[in-house]
């Protein structure tokens, strides 16, 4: 990757997760001077990107809210080991978001959202590959496909609407029976009777290392990284003239990109935009050194969790908890994932395990906000990717660099506008 020779000015990126480091690299390519501000070290476990299940899937086009979801929500909420938990004290705060989530499950809206997801994600490999090659970590993008397994023979037919959406958007879909599952992924136990295999999808065996390596590459190209928390802005005539840091310091700014994960909503409110953003708190458990033989990221379609082979072992990730940014983690949610995953494999010896919780920045309609701030034209929003942050990171970074440079964007950004809610 080479940068343009004409200096374009300075961009301050708030957030050093996968969106932030990809944005930094693409801004450098456009010739900007780049600063990145985040209290966490890029790639560290304090970031949501660290705990990702690892899917890098250009075919991801199925929103979280699908037709019929309202029928499932009461069952999930009543199940202490189910995929959705809302802490009672937090329910009044989460309720407006949840109502918007249910509104997004109407079929016409689902089809709009699905098209927007595919428009963003279809360039995932195209945008990641040059970054990863330049950073010298090509081993962190593996193209082995993605597998959704069912414990009944008619599982795929129950999701026919979603399969139709995938096919409509050009995603290759294979339906497998029990014998074909065994041939493709012999590590799985014989409890699975059918599956959906998406052969053109990919995975990353260490999302935290990917973020760290992309940050290191940006730093080598001249980006400056600051360990600090942005808490507000000093406003000038056309937007922020400086960002205010926790502790009282200020940093002068020209153009600002907000990709601070689940905390982005607080910053956007200070700029006059009330965007419904919630922390969809996600958990994972890492079984260190687990030798299951699993090769392909595998999703239990019935129990709503993901099993991913990682460099350090097996990662089991999933579920959604609404409790806000400040409530302590409930690591029982991680232990539930391990309990549910045990029957999935022919062999799973559990030794050392680590547990993690992170804050997915979720919008009610499953797609991010990529737009300029209403009252600050020198601020670009790039947040709200929810469960799709690793997938959309590089594409979003490229789009933000085009916005900052005043160039036509690679995709139509109308579906991602801030005022769509």
TrEMBL record:
A GO MF term: oxidoreductase activity
UniProt-listed Pfam families: DAO
GO cellular component: cytoplasm
Keyword terms of this UniProt record: Oxidoreductase
UniProt keyword Oxidoreductase present: yes
InterPro entries named among the record's database cross-references: FAD-dep_OxRdtase, FAD/NAD-bd_sf
Full protein name: Uncharacterized protein
Organism name: Rhizobium loti
């Amino acid at each position: 990757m080479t940068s343009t020779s004409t200096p374009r000015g300075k961009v301050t990126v708030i957030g050093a997760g996968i969106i932030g480091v990809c944005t930094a690299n693409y801004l450098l390519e456009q010739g900007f001077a780049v600063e990145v501000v985040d209290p966490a070290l890029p790639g560290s476990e304090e970031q949501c990107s660290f705990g990702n299940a690892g899917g890098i899937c250009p075919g991801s086009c199925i929103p979280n809210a699908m037709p019929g979801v309202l029928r499932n929500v009461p069952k999930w909420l009543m199940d202490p080991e189910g995929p959705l938990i809302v802490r009672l004290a937090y329910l009044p705060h989460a309720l407006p978001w949840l109502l918007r989530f249910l509104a997004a499950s109407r079929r016409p809206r689902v089809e709009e959202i699905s098209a927007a997801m595919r428009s963003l994600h279809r360039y995932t490999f195209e945008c990641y590959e040059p970054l990863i090659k330049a950073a010298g970590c090509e081993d962190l993008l593996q193209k082995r496909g993605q597998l959704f397994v069912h414990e009944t023979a008619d599982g795929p037919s129950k999701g026919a609407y979603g399969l139709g959406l995938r096919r409509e958007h050009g995603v290759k879909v294979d339906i497998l029976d029990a014998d074909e599952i065994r041939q493709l992924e012999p590590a799985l136990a014989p409890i699975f009777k059918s599956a959906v295999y998406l052969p053109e999808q990919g995975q990353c065996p260490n999302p935290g290392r990917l973020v760290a390596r992309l940050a290191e590459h940006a730093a080598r190209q001249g980006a400056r990284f600051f360990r600090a928390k942005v808490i507000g802005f000093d406003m000038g005539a056309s937007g922020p003239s400086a960002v205010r840091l926790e502790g009282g310091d200020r940093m002068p700014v020209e153009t600002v990109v907000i990709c601070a994960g689940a905390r982005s909503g607080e910053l956007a409110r200070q700029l006059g935009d009330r965007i419904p953003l919630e922390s969809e708190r996600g958990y994972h458990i890492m079984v260190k050194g687990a030798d299951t033989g699993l090769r392909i990221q595998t999703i239990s379609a019935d129990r709503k969790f993901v099993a991913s082979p990682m460099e350090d072992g097996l990662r089991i990730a999933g579920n959604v908890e609404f409790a806000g940014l400040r409530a302590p983690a409930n690591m029982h949610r991680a232990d539930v994932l391990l309990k549910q995953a045990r029957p999935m494999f022919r062999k799973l010896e559990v030794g050392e395990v680590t547990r993690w919780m992170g804050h997915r920045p979720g919008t009610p309609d499953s797609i991010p906000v990529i737009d300029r701030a209403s009252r600050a034209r020198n601020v670009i929003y790039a947040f709200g990717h929810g469960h799709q942050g690793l997938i959309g990171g590089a594409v979003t970074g490229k789009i933000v660099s085009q916005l900052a440079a005043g160039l036509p964007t690679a995709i139509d950004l109308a579906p991602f506008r801030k005022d769509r809610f």
